[in-house]
Amino acid sequence: MSQEIPHSSSTPGPLGSKAPETPRTPGSGSSGAPGTPGGRALVPLPGAERLAAELRALRRPGLSGLRTLRPEGLIRVAVAAGLCVGSDDAAAGVEALLRAGVRHLGGHTLSADGARGDPLARAAAHTFGLLPDRRGVSGQERRKAAAAVYGVTSERFRKSQEREVTDELALAVLAVARTAASGRSPAGPVAQEAGVPPARTPEPVPDPPARLTGPPLPAVAGQRVSVHVASIELLRDIDILVSSENIYLEMSKTFRSTVSGSLRRAAAIRNESGETVDDVLARELEEWMRAHGRAGLPVRPGTVVPTSPGALAERGVRRIHHAAVASPTSDGHGYRVDPRVLAEAVSASFRLARAERDSYDPPLSSLCFPLLGAGHGLPPEKAARWLCWAVHEELRRDPSWTVHLVAQRPELAKLLTVASSAP
């Protein structure tokens, strides 16, 4: 069940109002660093004991367990280390954090195949499947490989060295966060420990256009915007759900906690055993790409492609709009979102909705947008402001639509509430 933040007609502050701080650096009340240069206010990170407990829970499922376990302590440390920005890329951020922690344990002496280097680092790498071609290995096989580092049986390792490995790795990931807190950019040593290539200094993100003159947003339009704290696939009775995709219209893997991965997983048709028999959204996107001569090629950024809702029809969803907003970075190691492309995709989604509206009985009347772009380098506050600006522009043209904005985390939903309340 989603938690709804009601839209207010009053303006709680300007579009640039300060957003809730995201934990960035360890605080003095935890095992983290006592402070940072410049005297910034710090948010305490989890202690090593909690992190070690989360690591022990993660040991059996391995890295694939990040999509279901959601280790909040490790996620907070990954955010502090600059390896992720929040829920959209939490799994990848925690994986990068563990790799950085293992390299910290090994003093950078660990060989690529794990055959040489500090035994503690080697055992940790085997325990969590961090070595090449070991990610999907079973927990039993990973434990066996870790035990071999010490020349003991799997059972002996479980009762003795394994706890030391998780305890030391917990301290190591906190040390990685301390490195970031000391003022060394994640684009430097921390990212290198995690195997992330150095990043260029990002260009400043522009603000959305300001409306200095002209009619205000009609009151009825403002009342038709609501904000939800929820995973988008859990919402009911909304005609159109919008998914964020890359410009190749390649949906996220179903085990990822992204909007794309969550919708793909929820829309899939399954048999009585729970096995997927029709990956509806990915299949229909592939069919669209072939039909339009774009198989293996990118579409224009801002393109929106519709598909059926698959199994989400049972929740009252009638269409899925796939917004191609994420473009690969020049180094090929990630994606970026231009805020103007985000706004163009919002406009395209409304345009498509208007074209399809009367093809349904009753006609289409509602759309739901996630915080597009926030997981791909676009600061969440800027993403919220551009998204809400684009939605307001469309509602000025046609205030008959009901718009839902959704974010998984309360602090992100608050950004949407502030932005959607601005004039």
Q: Please name the CATH architecture of the largest domain.
A: 3-Layer(aba) Sandwich
In this structure, how is the largest beta sheet organized?
A: 8 strands, mixed
Q: N- to C-terminal separation?
A: 30 Å
Put simply, the count of helices is: 15
H/E series, N to C?
EHHHHHHHHHHEEHEEHEEEHEHEH
Please identify which CATH superfamily of the largest domain we are dealing with.
Leucine Aminopeptidase, subunit E, domain 1
Q: How would you characterize the overall build of this protein?
A:
Strands 1, 2, 3, 6, 7, 8, 9 and 10 form an eight-stranded mixed beta sheet that branches. This protein has a two-stranded antiparallel ribbon with strand order 4-5. 40% of the residues lie in helices and 11% in strands. Residues 1-42 and 184-201 have low confidence and may be disordered. It starts with a strand and ends with a helix. The protein folds into two domains: 48-193, no CATH class; 205-421, Leucine Aminopeptidase, subunit E, domain 1. Helix 5 (119-127) runs antiparallel to helix 6. A hairpin with a 5-residue loop joins strand 4 and strand 5 (276-278). The protein is elongated and about 70 Å long. With 423 residues, it is of the alpha/beta class. It has helices at residues 48-59, 66-69, 72-80, 90-105, 119-127, 139-150, 154-159, 161-181, 186-193, 219-222, 259-267, 280-291, 339-356, 380-397, 410-421; strands at 3-5, 225-229, 240-246, 269-270, 276-278, 304-307, 319-328, 335-336, 366-370, 402-407.
